[in-house]
TrEMBL record:
GO CC field: plasma membrane
SMART domains: AAA
Protein name (database record): ATP-binding cassette, subfamily B
Entry membrane topology: Multi-pass membrane protein
Record keywords: ATP-binding, Cell membrane, Membrane, Nucleotide-binding, Transmembrane, Transmembrane helix, Transport
Originating organism: Sporolactobacillus nakayamae
TM region(s), chain numbering: 52-76, 133-151, 157-176, 238-258, 278-297
UniProt cross-references to InterPro entries, sorted A to Z: AAA+_ATPase (IPR003593), ABC1_TM_dom (IPR011527), ABC1_TM_sf (IPR036640), ABC_transporter-like_ATP-bd (IPR003439), ABC_transporter-like_CS (IPR017871), P-loop_NTPase (IPR027417), Type_1_exporter (IPR039421)
């Protein structure tokens, strides 16, 4: 949990001030019974009114000081804990942003969200509690003990009897409940994941009429969370009364021995009242400490989960600084040399990509086709360094991709992924998201090439029409075309279209391709498609099969020598999926 040190350094002064006010407040609490004992024994006992007035005023002054200190530490603790949580969340977010796709896959989206929200809140609650009550508990506890011994050393022996019992109870409480709190957070991850799955797949769930099934899945996770939380708090609720019982037993013993002392005139009533008052404060302090330990175990479980993210070594290193630009004839060019890759590490399973070798020259269009799951998308994701290959090298623009900074590489390569993603906001905002500096004219031109301009202008507010979260109010084909425009506006050296026209009809698909060719004839392009028609005009076509390159060549060449390609092509011809163009 070393990562927390930086926040301690930032906020330690305010933290110490909060503790200072808290200590004064505790001191004020501790003085009250002693003053009261004197008022009872010396003032009331001897009917000394001026003494009562003088000490009464002193008690009032101390109470006012205590109240002022309580307000000051409340203000400080509130601001410190809020800012600390704000900083921690921000740093966690930045850390997650720096993660490779493999690291995000490893933690899972839902778990990262829980860590960023619920886990941070738990640590914040603990930090706040530390400044509000927790640090007060040991102060009041030890102070009460000292004051009690000072009042009557013999009577204080009772405390020695119950102290070890209470210590053992608190220790057991912590030890038993810690694993439960860790499991509660994991169960919360699962609840969040089912909610995320539902929201992401709501249309499919409704179409397949699987709402009841999904509800059951959520219920299972929710029940598990409920049961684990109940079990965790049950442990706390078993130990709290046991501790209470031990302290109340102590008070009873004091009243018993004190009663005997008053009878034998060796003790005064005021002393007994003050002593039991200190015992009550001690009880309160112990209960607070028990609560504090409960909060500590929860916060520890959460802090560890946050620490796993904060301390996770980045598995990808990007260069900093910019790389000299390549020769113009290499712009957009890509070379794969003996590239092998598997998602599951360490390797043991059949790699997803096996010994991939190919050259894509500047200005060329490369088509990639192959059965589902043959590794087409993975291949292009390696160019963007979403993942790094296990073996081999990838050269882009004449340089090994590992020599680029993250920003530089991703500025030069634009991808339109299989699953389009649009943000809530205006259409123009979504397209300009690809390049904030783009003028309106450039936006319209990109949309025109992507065959999006026409339908956008027909929307109720044209380019200013609002898109719902994830593009809910647009059709699949419309979303794809806006995504293509967003990628084009970046003016990349290499454009990757990963099945980016799967939702548009054959005519539009052809129109987009021909406009791309006309408008950007120097643009190097990779088109992944299930449809042979979308890639048949490419300068080169790679046919993927089971993670390996089955064949590579032009459409004509492949028809002549690749039975596999011929198979795909003739099957689509029979289905009428390819129109002669
Ligand atoms: N994030 C991931 N983690 C683990 N395995 C993955 C991941 N993404 C893809 N795979 C696996 O890698 C293999 C190749 O997937 P990839 O998406 O590259 O195939 P594809 O040819 O693009 O398929 P499709 O035509 O359906 O898009 C598949 O077996 C898939 O299950």
């Amino acid at each position: 949990m070393g990562y927390l040190r930086i926040y301690w350094k930032t906020y330690r002064v305010k933290f110490v001030f909060a503790l200072f006010f808290l200590s004064l407040e505790a001191l004020a609490d501790l003085m009250q019974p002693a003053l009261m004992s004197r008022i009872v024994d010396q003032g009331v006992g001897k009917a000394d009114l001026p003494f009562i007035e003088q000490f009464g005023l002193l008690m009032l002054t101390i109470t006012v000081i205590g109240a002022f200190c309580a307000s000051a530490r409340n203000v400080l603790s509130g601001s410190v804990s809020q800012r600390f949580a704000q900083d921690l969340r921000q740093d966690l977010y930045i850390k997650i942003q720096s993660f490779s796709q493999a690291q995000i896959d490893h933690f899972g989206n839902a778990s990262l969200i829980t860590r960023l929200t619920n886990d941070v809140t738990r640590v914040q609650t603990f930090a706040n509690g530390m400044m509000r009550i927790m640090a007060k508990a040991p102060l009041v506890g030890i102070g009460s003990l000292i004051m009690a011994i000072h009042l009557n050393a013999k009577l204080s022996l009772v405390l020695l009897g119950i102290a070890p019992i209470i210590a053992v109870l608190i220790f057991l409480n912590m030890k038993i409940s810690y694993p439960f709190f860790r499991n509660v957070q994991r169960a919360l991850d699962r609840v969040n994941r089912s909610m995320q799955d539902y929201l992401a797949g709501v249309r499919v769930i409704k179409v397949f009429n699987r709402s009841a099934y999904e509800q059951k899945k959520f219920q299972l996770n929710n029940n598990e969370l409920g049961e684990l939380s109940a079990a965790a708090s049950k442990i706390g609720s078993l130990f709290a009364p046991a501790i209470n019982l031990a302290v109340n037993g102590g008070i009873l013993a004091i009243l018993w021995f004190g009663g005997l002392g008053v009878n034998s005139d060796s003790m005064q009533v005021g002393t007994i009242i003050a002593f039991t008052n200190y015992m009550m404060q001690l009880l309160f302090a112990i209960m607070m400490m028990n609560n504090a330990f409960n909060m500590l175990v929860r916060a520890k479980a959460s802090a560890e989960r946050i620490g796993q993210v904060m301390n996770d070594e980045l598995d990808q290193r990007f260069q900093t600084g910019s790389l000299e630009l390549c020769a113009p004839e290499k712009k957009g060019a890509v070379q794969f040399r003996h590239v092998t890759f598997s998602y599951q590490k360490p390797e043991g399973q059949d790699p997803v990509l096996k010994d991939i070798n190919f050259d894509l020259d500047s200005g060329e269009t490369l088509g990639i086709i192959g059965p589902i799951g043959s590794g087409k998308s993975t291949l292009t994701q390696l160019i963007l360094r979403f993942y790094d290959p296990d073996k081999g090298t990838i050269v882009f623009n004449g340089n090994d991709i590992k020599r680029y900074s993250e920003g530089e590489l991703r500025k030069r390569v634009a991808i339109v992924p299989q699953r389009t993603f649009l943000f809530s906001g205006s259409v123009i905002g979504n397209i300009r998201w690809g390049n904030e500096q783009a003028s309106d004219e450039e936006v319209y031109e990109a949309a025109r090439i992507a065959d999006a301009d026409g339908f956008i202008r027909r929307l109720s507010h044209g380019y200013d029409s609002m898109i719902g979260q994830g593009g809910v109010n647009l059709s699949g084909g419309q979303k794809q075309r806006i995504s293509i425009a967003r990628a084009l506006i970046r003016k990349p050296d290499l454009l990757i279209l990963d099945d980016a026209t799967s939702a548009v009809d054959v005519r539009t698909d052809k129109l987009i391709r021909s406009r791309l060719k006309q408008a950007l004839n120097q643009l190097t392009c990779i088109i992944i498609s299930q449809k042979a028609a979308s890639i048949k005009d490419a300068d080169k076509i790679i046919v993927m099969n089971h993670g390996a390159i089955e064949a590579i060549g032009t459409h004509k060449e492949l028809l002549s020598f690749s039975a596999f390609y011929r198979g795909i092509y003739s099957m689509q011809m029979e289905r009428g999926g390819i129109q002669n163009d």
